[in-house]
Amino acid sequence: MVRRHELTDQERELLAPLIPRAATGRPRVSDRQVINGMVYKIRTGISWRDLPERYGLWQTVYTRFRRYALAGVFTRALQQIQTQADAAGDIDWLVQIDSTIVRAHQHAAATGRKGGGTGRTNRTSTPSVDPEAGCVRVVCSD
């Protein structure tokens, strides 16, 4: 039974060959159990210490997560899975961004001066309409 926030069998089969195996040492906790713990932590946003016991010791899951991150395991896995999916025609690379979901941080407009944005800069923004795409783009110049 696959629980919520865990890898399905299909996802596990895709990821398994991309996860490094320990060559020597004592027997490890199951890769599937530990990776499901990582997925659970990332999807729920809980702290490592609050990881449910079914994933083993939180220290084990954290240590392996950190090792994989520093070694670039996740980056390589993502690249390989994307390459396979692209070759199979499963990825649509057309991306459209709706400006209503692109938000600036509250300090993005700050000038660095106390009291707000009273200073002037040499930068100008000119909105223009791209008739082919039917969207507005902003051209900045210094």
Percent of residues in helices: 25-40%
The count of helical stretches stands at 4
**How many beta-strand runs?**
2
Categorize the overall geometry: extended
Weakly predicted, low-confidence segments: none
Task: Throw out a few tags for this protein.
142 residues, alpha+beta, two-stranded antiparallel ribbon, 4 helices, 2 strands, extended, IS402-like_dom, Transposase_6_like, IS5 family transposase
Fold topology:
Elements: H1 9-15, H2 31-44, H3 58-71, H4 73-87, E1 124-130, E2 135-141
Antiparallel strand pairs: 1-2
Helix pairs in contact: 2-3
Protein name: IS5 family transposase
Region (Disordered): 108-130
Organism: Streptomyces asiaticus subsp. ignotus
Short description:
The protein has 142 residues and is an alpha+beta fold.
Tell me about this structure:
The protein is an alpha+beta fold and 142 residues long. It has a domain at 9-87. The chain is built from four helices and two strands; from the N terminus they run ααααββ. It has a two-stranded antiparallel sheet with strand order 1-2. The mean pLDDT is 79.
